[in-house]
């Protein structure tokens, strides 16, 4: 998207005019104009010159936003900050001060002396012509001070694109011209000595109305500009976080350079209390880094060698030396700023309603004003009375409130999201997220932590937990099995010291064996340990219970005596059950997608509290599942944004969770900076609050005009005697826009994580089971037509049974028109074993797809060419598993 700065716009009619003009340019596929930020986003192949020419032909100005190349040095944030700087308020404040000064003098003479007989210099006593000329002169001065209304208004009229300024200019000009006519007529009457006519014409002066209209509109414009400036506070505060300098190592010496001069690969140092200048990798040192600026999380994150760090985060404790990996527009901070800025440049669907109204609003108001004048004159009223009603119609009508109703709320909502680590890529996403009816959650890394952890320690009689863990620690420290890491982490957390073992063996198809101080240690699954020692029935029962809960039980023995069981699993995150409950309280049906078999899936789903579990889902099959779910309602897919891209794209709303520094995930519509599932209901909650705020703004804007215009036209005069002075009409016009913007600013007080006011969706999903259900992939895919690209494929669940921690476990195969072979394998104990076998087999040339099942002891491979059995066997046995046969 190419972005432009547009000048000369004053209301929604202006932005609609610009958008319409640019959309007609050949090569432009889409155009979105933001009155709030005076910016325009254009997509397509049209040249900048053609776009700018179209804007200028419409009577406005435009220039492209200049950005540095990504390959270049880091651009200064000054230009970005200047683009959002509030230049309008100071100019309007200056205009207002001058206008008020002259208006007070004008009001003293026109109202104070005429109505309350306030004293004036003797020269003006009885000299009505001099009094009229003074009022004319003061009004002209105020009109010159506020000449922008007239220049913009009449330019729009000439280009047949009248705007709000046109209404103000017409109303003020009509008051001024009629008053000038009355002044000349009064002068002629005074020359003729007709004092009755002189006094009658004196009461036809509307100089103060012309001046008051301009001044009050300026007051409203200033309040509006000031409030609009505050809507970008969140974005500006992000920009201010970017450090201006960095300390880099040049020729072995520490040198302070401008952030512009930092290049990828530079080595930089950060001391305690300093902000990290660019994204990088820690090479040396350790520290606690506060990442609240990016994620909204106030708890510092420990960083050590090898860990990534992001620009604008605060180094709180230690000295660290880092290598720059992303600079300039590539840094996480820059991408966040760009994402929020792009979202502000897009337009929400609901804004189109206001745009359509704004496009015909001003011509319609001018028509109503003319009709009002004609009707009152035809009714026998004086021209002054009829003109006052007509002017009131012009100045009370406010297209600005209509134009600002949506963009101000979108901008504030986006800013609030960015503050809390929730990034909406477009205004459409911000509006639509709150309408979600179904949320599909990828299990691994979303509901669960994605890393296996020790969950249970069950020592055998006569053995303590510490002793059991000590034996397992000694045995597993030389193992390369994925589950070994969980035991090592648990032992380190308990500050156990590792003991050195000898004669270590990884036995294919069985487990581990080693000698510790003369004692023989064994570890592995039930099948292996039961061949080495006797497993008591109560211990076996406990292992089966653990397996039912989706955990992998690992058995350990010492000198032929059972030492106990250590259960390992991919545990759910602490906030996952609460996040699921919050979504359910919002009337959302929560579905968990997992590659686990149904038994394991049921255990995880029960812990998380989801409504429905769909088991045996390959990453490639997630898109089909989403396709099926979309038939039942509006679907949001939540995944890690890496292997979930097709599903994220297929869903109505794609949400990438725990993206961290991977902000620019193209497939996702919403990026959550933190790995907390609770940010998903927070994003939906913020979307609903923003949409509610937009509805309030639109209601106020429409209601104001529906009530105000008939009142100004004098419809109620025959019934109730209500009539509106043009000055009060101008005041009402000024306050309408101010009220809309101020209402949008209330979103800054919204608490995104407060579930106390959540309400269920008005249109609940009708065809989804209300209770917790388990489905396999073939049940889901039977309900959805496969995409064209895989129209010759069918899905089926290949494996059933118990598995443990298995990130993205792939439990079903896609049967294609190729060769199929089944391998009987001994040695697989858990889902991680299956993943290793699968990866090994798929690395063999000619293997299109592979899946493994540790409980069945099989692996199925699909071939797109002939592959010797020896190659398949070698690939598996290199991973320390034994291939018994290949069919």
Task: Give a quick set of tags describing it.
887 residues, 6-stranded antiparallel β-sheet
Question: Would you mind describing this structure in some detail?
Answer:
The protein is of the alpha+beta class. Helix content is 47%, strand content 20%. The strands form seven sheets. The protein has an eight-stranded mixed β-sheet, with helices on both faces. β31 and β32 form a beta hairpin. α14 packs antiparallel against α26. The two termini are 55 Å apart.
The largest beta-sheet arranges its strands as: 14-26-25-24-15-22-23-27
Averaged pLDDT, please? Answer: 78
Broad shape:
elongated
Helix content: 40-55%
Determine the number of helices (DSSP H or I, runs of at least 4 residues).
31
Radius of gyration: 36 Å
Strand elements, count: 33
**Poorly predicted parts:** 67-77, 766-772, 780-818
Termini distance? 55 Å
Largest sheet: 8 strands, mixed
Strand content: 15-25%
Instruction: Return the structural class.
Output: alpha+beta
């Amino acid at each position: 998207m190419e972005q432009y700065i547009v000048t000369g716009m004053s209301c929604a009619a202006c932005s609609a005019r610009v958008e319409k003009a640019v959309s007609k340019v050949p090569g432009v596929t889409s155009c979105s104009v933001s009155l709030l930020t005076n910016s325009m986003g254009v997509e397509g192949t049209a040249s900048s010159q053609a776009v700018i020419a179209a804007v200028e032909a419409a009577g406005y100005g435009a220039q492209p936003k200049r950005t540095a190349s990504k390959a270049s040095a880091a651009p200064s944030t000054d230009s970005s900050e200047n683009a959002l700087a509030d230049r309008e308020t100071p100019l309007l404040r200056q205009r207002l001060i001058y206008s008020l000064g002259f208006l007070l003098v004008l009001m003293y003479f026109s109202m104070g002396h005429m109505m309350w007989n306030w004293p004036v210099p003797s020269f003006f006593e009885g000299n009505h012509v001099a009094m009229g000329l003074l009022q004319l002169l003061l009004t002209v001065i105020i009109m010159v001070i506020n000449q922008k209304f007239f220049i913009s208004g009449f330019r729009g009229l000439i280009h047949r694109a009248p705007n709000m300024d046109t209404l103000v200019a017409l109303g003020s000009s009509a008051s001024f011209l009629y008053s000038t006519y009355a002044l000349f007529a009064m002068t002629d009457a005074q020359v003729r000595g007709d004092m009755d006519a002189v006094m009658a014409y004196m009461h036809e002066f509307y100089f103060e109305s012309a001046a008051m209209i301009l001044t009050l509109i300026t007051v409203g414009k200033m309040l509006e500009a000031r409030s609009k400036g505050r809507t970008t506070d969140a974005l500006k505060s992000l920009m201010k976080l970017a450090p201006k300098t960095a300390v880099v190592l040049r020729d072995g010496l520490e040198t302070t350079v401008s952030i512009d001069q930092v290049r990828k690969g530079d080595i930089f140092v950060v001391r305690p209390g300093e902000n990290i200048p660019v994204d990088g990798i820690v090479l040396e040192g350790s520290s606690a880094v506060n990442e609240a600026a990016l994620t909204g999380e106030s708890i510092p994150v420990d960083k050590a060698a090898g860990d990534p760090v992001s620009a604008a985060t605060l180094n709180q404790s230690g000295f660290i030396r880092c290598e720059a990996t992303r600079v300039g527009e590539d840094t996480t901070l820059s991408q966040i700023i760009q994402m929020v800025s792009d979202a502000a440049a897009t337009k929400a669907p609901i804004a189109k309603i206001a745009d359509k109204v704004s496009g015909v609003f001003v011509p319609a108001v001018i028509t109503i004003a003319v009709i009002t004048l004609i009707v009152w004159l035809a009714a026998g009223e004086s021209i002054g009375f009829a003109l006052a009603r007509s002017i009131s119609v012009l100045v009370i009508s406010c297209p600005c409130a209509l134009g600002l109703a949506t963009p101000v709320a979108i901008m504030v909502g986006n800013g609030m999201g960015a503050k809390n680590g929730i990034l909406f890529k477009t205004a459409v996403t911000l509006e639509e997220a709150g309408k979600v009816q179904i949320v599909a959650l990828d299990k691994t890394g979303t509901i669960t932590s994605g890393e296996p952890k020790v969950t249970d320690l069950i020592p055998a009689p006569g053995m303590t937990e510490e002793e059991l863990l000590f034996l397992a620690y000694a045995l597993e420290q030389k193992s390369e099995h994925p589950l070994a890491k969980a035991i090592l982490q648990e032992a380190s957390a308990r500050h156990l010291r590792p003991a050195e073992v000898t004669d270590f063996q990884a036995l294919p198809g069985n487990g581990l064996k080693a000698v510790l101080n003369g004692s023989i240690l064994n570890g592995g699954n039930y099948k292996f340990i039961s061949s080495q020692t006797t497993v008591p029935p109560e211990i076996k029962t406990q292992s089966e219970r653990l397996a039912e809960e989706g955990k992998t039980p690992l058995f350990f023995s010492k000198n032929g005596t059972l030492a106990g069981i250590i259960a390992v699993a991919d545990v759910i995150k602490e906030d996952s059950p609460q996040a699921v409950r919050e979504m359910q309280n919002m009337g959302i049906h929560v579905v968990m997608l997992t590659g686990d078999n149904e038994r394991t899936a049921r255990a995880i789903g029960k812990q998380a509290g989801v409504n429905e579990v769909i088991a045996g889902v390959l990453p490639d099959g997630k898109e089909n599942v989403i396709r099926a779910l979309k038939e039942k309602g509006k679907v949001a897919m939540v995944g890690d944004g890496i292997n979930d891209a097709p599903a994220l794209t297929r869903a109505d709303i794609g949400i990438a969770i725990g993206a961290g520094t991977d902000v620019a995930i193209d497939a996702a519509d919403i990026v959550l900076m933190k790995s907390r599932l609770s940010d998903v209901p927070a994003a939906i909650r913020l979307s609903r609050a923003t949409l509610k705020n937009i509805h309030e703004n639109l209601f106020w804007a429409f209601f104001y005009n529906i009530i105000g215009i008939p009142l100004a036209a004098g419809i109620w005069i025959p019934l109730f005697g209500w009539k509106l002075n043009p000055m009060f009409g101008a005041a009402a016009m000024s306050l309408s826009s101010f009220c809309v913007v101020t209402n949008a600013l209330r979103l800054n007080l919204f608490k995104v994580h407060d579930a106390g006011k959540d309400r269920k969706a008005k249109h609940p999903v009708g065809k989804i089971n209300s209770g917790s259900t388990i489905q396999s992939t073939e049940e889901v895919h039977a309900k959805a037509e496969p995409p064209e690209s895989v129209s010759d494929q069918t899905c089926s669940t290949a494996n059933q049974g118990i598995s443990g921690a298995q990130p993205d476990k792939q439990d079903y195969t896609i049967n294609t028109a190729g060769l199929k072979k089944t391998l009987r394998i001994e040695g697989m104990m858990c889902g991680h074993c299956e993943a290793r076998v699968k990866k090994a087999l798929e690395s063999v040339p000619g293997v299109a797809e592979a899946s493994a099942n540790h409980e069945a002891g099989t692996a199925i491979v699909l071939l797109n060419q002939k592959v010797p059995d020896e190659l398949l066997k070698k690939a598996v046995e290199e991973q320390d598993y034994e291939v018994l046969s290949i069919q």
